[in-house]
Design brief:
The protein has 151 residues and is of the alpha+beta class. It has one domain. Helices cover 42% and strands 19% of the residues. The chain contains three helices and six strands. The strands form two sheets. It has a four-stranded antiparallel sheet with strand order 3-4-5-6, covered by helices on one side. Strands 1-2 form a two-stranded parallel sheet. A hairpin with a 2-residue loop joins strand 3 and strand 4. Helix 1 runs antiparallel to helix 2. The longest helix is centred in the first third of the chain and has 31 residues. It starts with 11 loop residues before the first helix and ends with a strand.
C-alpha cells in the first residue's frame, strides 16, 4: 500500500533508556569507589590502608555482581558462575597466588551460597604479601561489610 516509508534509526525512547542505564552504572561505580576516593582527598593513610580501601571497594563490586546475577537468574552465584556469566572477566582468579590475576590482591575469596543469600569472604594471604594485621572481609546479601581480625 502506498503510505509513508518507515524510517530506521534510534528512537527518542531508546536513546533516553540508554542514557538512564549509563547513569545507573555511573552512580553504582561512584558508590563502590567512594571510600577510595575519600582516601585520596584526605591524602591520608598508609600503603596498607590504601590496599584495604581497594579491597573494600572490590568486595562492594562483588556484592553488586551477586545482586545483578540474582536479578537475572533468581539465584545467587558461586565464583565459577559469576565468571561463566561474564560478570567477572576471564583471567581473574579468586586466589591471591597462582595462575591468573587476583580479583582482590593479597586476598583469597570464598563465596558461600544458599537459597536465601550469600556470604563473600576475603581472607588475607600473608604468603602473597598481605600486610600483618590485615582483617578478613565479609559481605552478605544485605550489603553488610564486616571486618574480622585475622588470626
Amino acid at each position: 500500500m502506498g503510505g509513508l516509508p518507515r524510517e530506521e534509526g534510534l528512537s527518542l525512547i531508546g536513546l533516553l533508556l540508554t542514557v538512564a542505564i549509563i547513569g545507573v552504572v555511573l552512580v553504582l561505580s561512584l558508590q563502590t569507589y567512594k571510600p577510595v576516593l575519600q582516601s585520596f582527598e584526605t591524602g591520608g593513610g598508609s600503603a596498607a590502608s590504601f590496599k584495604l580501601d581497594i579491597s573494600r571497594a572490590q568486595m562492594q563490586k562483588l556484592y553488586q555482581m551477586e545482586l545483578l546475577y540474582y536479578t537475572l537468574h533468581r539465584s545467587y552465584a558461586t565464583w565459577d558462575q559469576l565468571v561463566a556469566d561474564g560478570q567477572i572477566a576471564q583471567g581473574y582468579t579468586n586466589r591471591a597466588q597462582g595462575r591468573g590475576t587476583p580479583f582482590i590482591p593479597y586476598f583469597d575469596i570464598d563465596i558461600q551460597v544458599s537459597p536465601n543469600g550469600f556470604v563473600i569472604t576475603a581472607t588475607p594471604s600473608f604468603a602473597a604479601g598481605a600486610p600483618p594485621g590485615t582483617p578478613v572481609l565479609k559481605i552478605d546479601q544485605e550489603g553488610n561489610l564486616v571486618e574480622v581480625p585475622s588470626k
